[in-house]
Specification:
By secondary structure, the protein is an alpha/beta fold. It has 2 domains: 287 residues, TIM Barrel, CATH 3.20.20.70; 123 residues, GI Alpha 1, domain 2-like. The protein has 15 helices and 10 strands. Strand 3, helix 4 and strand 4 form a beta-alpha-beta unit. The longest helix has 25 residues. It is globular, with a radius of gyration of 22 Å.
Length: 441
């Protein structure tokens, strides 16, 4: 059975508009919202985890690749979503979490990670070996060949794991692979930048040439067929308080070059916060896999904060309030490692960034027990009172429209999930024909 992501390539060869969002988030409510929206349209759903989120040591989520699969499938079972329509992916799979180690040790850890991802049933693997490792020369840029050779070594490990799976299941679907990493580290840029350079044609073609050369060196002549996409930088990015909007004119040289390579597409990272019309242009221009992460958890946080505003107005007894915002802030101050190097400015500016930054570093703290308890208390408080429609319109105008029209129940968790679905809708609009969402046109 063929990997269903290959359908994107086949459709595009026929001139059919085709792409897929890649949802990179581990939050339970966010995944639930994504799957519910996919169920409404009977869609495939690509959900990815980064090597920092999920690895053999648990990552910051505390989950191994198999545990993340079970976690995601458990959410699907809870809402009645067909698990066969979920495609699991591994993003930035490589030595990134162990980049401080010497290359031999870092690559040993990376090989363990990609092997576990394949054995856990991940069907899309981004092989990212673009970072310097502990004993690489800091004064020299990594060569295309060295990056590609390390990527091919990881590909070999994936292939071994896949061959093991075939022994017990001859119909096991083969993973497809994404190479390249023309992006900053996962999660957005750390500093304000005036502009983002679009990947040059030479860089793009050198990546292809080096990988093909290394496949041949390792006796893997036919394995290029397993490469579905190359990560490029089409000129989009977001940071603490900025968004670089896609300009198809700047990326035209890159999209034109792709026409010479009909068997692959581009994968775009950091597409968060782009206007939906720009996302659609990206897909039209060959960036057929559009990855989104922090914008999803940002929408979750935004929805929860809206509930906090209504809670303070509707429940005057402070002892009964959830104090979600205050507890989240406390947890972030107690353990600043996830945000400290990302936020800059005065004390007030940094305080505001902890709450409102597009980088959304507060997402790392939503798994803290006290934060989860406060969120549950907030939901219970909101569901215990009647929200005046005018107040709902003030705090959550998009959700008000759906409540008014009988589409959305006025329940706390449903309101918050719909805030996430508004982001999902932008990506549906980008990859589908005739998909209309409020405010797009």
């Amino acid at each position: 059975m063929k990997n269903r992501l290959l359908n994107i390539i086949e459709k595009r060869k026929l001139g059919i508009h085709s792409g897929i969002p890649s949802f990179c988030c581990s939050n339970k409510i966010v995944i639930e919202a994504i799957l519910e929206q996919s169920r409404r349209f009977d869609d495939l759903c690509l959900i990815e985890a980064t090597s920092n989120q999920v690895n053999q040591y648990g990552g910051y989520t505390g989950m191994t690749p198999m545990e993340f699969r079970q976690y995601t499938y458990g959410i699907a079972d809870k809402i009645g979503f067909d698990k066969s329509k979920i495609i699991l992916g591994g993003d930035h799979m490589g030595p990134l979490p162990w980049a401080d180690l010497p290359a031999k040790e870092a690559m040993k850890e990376a090989k363990k990670l990609v092997r576990l991802c394949v054995l856990a049933g991940y069907k899309k693997i981004h092989l990212d070996t673009s970072m310097r490792l502990g004993d690489d020369d800091v004064n020299e840029k990594l060569s295309y060949d060295k990056i590609a050779e390390r990527g091919v070594i990881l590909y070999q490990e994936c292939e071994k794991a896949y061959q093991e799976m075939l022994k017990s299941n001859p119909d096991e679907i083969k993973p497809v692979f994404v190479i390249g990493s023309e992006v900053p580290i996962p999660g957005g840029i750390k500093e304000q930048e005036d502009g983002i350079d679009v990947t040059g044609i030479e860089d793009f073609e050198n990546t292809i040439l080096s990988y093909k050369k290394m496949f041949m060196k390792y006796g893997l002549d036919n394995c290029w067929d397993d490469i579905i996409a190359i990560v490029v930088q089409p000129g989009v990015e977001f940071g603490e308080n900025s968004v670089q909007i896609y300009d198809r004119n700047r990326a035209q040289h890159l999209s034109n070059t792709l026409k010479s390579y009909p068997d692959i597409v581009f994968e775009g990272h950091s597409t968060d916060y782009q206007p939906p019309t720009k996302l659609k242009e990206m897909v039209q221009d060959g960036i057929a896999i559009i990855k989104v992460g922090p914008a999803l958890s940002f929408a979750l946080r935004e929805g929860i904060f809206a509930l906090c505003g209504m809670e303070k107005e509707l429940i005057k007894d402070e002892a009964k309030q959830s104090h979600f915002k205050e507890i989240l802030e406390y947890e972030m101050l107690q353990n600043p490692k996830h945000w400290q190097s990302y936020y800059h400015g005065t004390d007030l500016e940094i305080e505001n960034s902890r709450k409102y930054s597009f980088s959304d570093r507060c997402r790392y703290y939503f798994i803290k027990p006290r934060v989860e308890q406060a969120m549950q208390k907030l939901f219970e408080n909101i569901d215990s009172v009647e929200i005046p429609w005018g107040m709902l319109h003030q705090y959550m105008p998009l959700q008000f429209n759906k409540v008014r029209d009988g589409i959305l129940p006025m329940k706390a968790k449903e309101l918050v999930k719909d805030a996430v679905i508004c982001v999902v809708d932008d990506y549906n609009y980008a990859v589908k024909y005739n998909y209309l969402i409020s405010g797009v046109l």
